[in-house]
C-alpha cells in the first residue's frame, strides 16, 4: 500500500518533481488537497525555522504525516545573501529576473563567485515527531544569465564539476545532484527505514 504524505507546497511543478524523486510507494498530496488555500507564514530568519514553521502549520491542520521545504542561495562574497530571503531578494513581488539582476549588480567587479544552494526539509510524522534533512550543492555565480530551463536563480548558477548552468542542464541531471534532490533523498532513506 502507498504511504500518504502531505507536501506543503502549492507549486505543481515542485510537487511533480518531488513525487518523481520519492517514487511510486508514496502518494503525495499538496496544500489544496488538504483544504489549505491561504499562504502559510514564512517569517523566520533561518531555512530550518521556516521549513518547520510551514510543516507545523500543515500538521496542526491535518494531523497527518507531512513535510515542508525551504531553499536559499548562499553567496560567499555577499556574506551568505540572499539566503533565506532568496524568493524576495529584490522585493515582495518575488520576481526571479529582478532577483538575479540584483545579485549580478552586487557581484559586479567581484572575483570570488562561490555559492551554494541549500535546502532544508522539515518532516513531521503522524505522531507529531519532527525531523530535519538538509541537502546542498556547491557551485559558482556567472556574469550573465544563460539557459531557459528550471526556475529562480538557475540561469546564473553553475554547479561544481560542470560548465553549464542549472538552466542549461537537463532536468534529470539537475535533480540527481541538486540541493532539493539530495535533501529529498535523505528524507526517502529515513522514510523507508522507519
Ligand atoms: P523555496 O523555498 O523552494 O520556495 O525557494 C526559495 C527561492 O529560492 C525561490 O523563490 C527561488 O528563487 C530560489 N530557488 C529555490 N530552489 C531553486 C532552484 O532549484 N533553482 C534556482 N532557484 C531556486
User: Runs with pLDDT <50, length 5+?
Assistant: none
- In CATH, the topology is named Maf protein
SS content category: alpha/beta
Radius of gyration: 17 Å
Q: Helical region count?
A: 5
Q: Tell me about the largest β-sheet.
A: 7 strands, mixed
State mean pLDDT (0 to 100 scale).
95
Short structural summary:
This protein has 194 residues and is α/β, with parallel strands linked by helices.
Give short descriptive properties of this protein.
194 residues, globular, 7-stranded mixed sheet, binds inosinic acid
Note down, in words, how this protein is organized:
It is a single chain. The chain has 194 residues and is α/β, with parallel strands linked by helices. It is built from 5 helices and 7 strands, in the order βαβαββαβββαα. It has one domain (3-192): Maf protein. It is 30% helix and 24% strand. Strands 1, 2, 3, 4, 5, 6 and 7 form a 7-stranded mixed beta sheet that branches. Strand 5 and strand 6 (130-141) form a beta hairpin. Helix 4 (171-177) crosses helix 5. It is globular, with a radius of gyration of 17 Å. Inosinic acid binds next to strand 3 and helix 3.
Map the helices and strands:
Blueprint: E1 3-7, H1 12-22, E2 26-29, H2 47-62, E3 66-75, E4 82-83, H3 96-106, E5 114-124, E6 130-141, E7 157-159, H4 171-177, H5 179-192
Parallel strand pairs: 1-2, 1-3
Antiparallel strand pairs: 3-4, 3-5, 5-6, 6-7
Helix pairs in contact: 4-5
Residues 69-71, 86-87, 96, 99, 117, 150-154, 166, 178, 180 line the site of inosinic acid.
Amino acid at each position: 500500500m502507498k504511504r500518504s504524505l502531505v507536501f506543503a507546497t502549492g507549486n505543481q511543478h515542485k510537487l511533480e518533481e518531488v513525487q518523481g524523486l520519492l517514487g511510486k510507494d508514496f502518494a503525495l498530496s499538496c496544500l489544496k488537497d488538504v483544504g489549505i488555500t491561504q499562504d502559510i507564514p514564512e517569517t523566520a530568519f533561518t531555512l530550518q525555522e521556516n521549513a518547520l514553521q510551514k510543516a507545523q502549520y500543515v500538521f496542526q491542520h491535518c494531523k497527518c504525516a507531512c513535510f515542508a521545504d525551504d531553499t536559499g542561495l548562499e553567496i560567499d562574497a555577499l556574506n551568505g545573501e540572499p539566503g533565506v530571503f532568496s524568493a524576495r531578494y529584490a522585493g515582495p513581488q518575488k520576481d526571479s529576473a529582478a532577483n538575479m539582476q540584483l545579485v549580478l549588480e552586487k557581484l559586479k567587479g567581484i572575483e570570488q563567485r562561490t555559492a551554494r544552494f541549500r535546502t532544508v526539509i522539515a518532516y513531521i510524522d503522524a505522531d507529531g515527531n519532527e525531523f530535519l534533512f538538509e541537502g546542498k550543492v556547491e557551485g559558482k555565480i556567472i556574469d550573465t544569465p544563460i539557459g531557459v530551463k528550471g526556475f529562480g536563480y538557475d540561469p546564473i548558477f553553475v554547479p561544481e564539476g560542470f560548465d553549464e548552468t542549472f538552466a542549461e542542464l537537463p532536468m534529470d541531471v539537475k535533480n540527481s545532484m541538486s540541493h532539493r534532490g539530495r535533501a529529498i533523498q535523505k528524507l526517502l532513506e529515513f522514510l523507508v527505514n522507519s
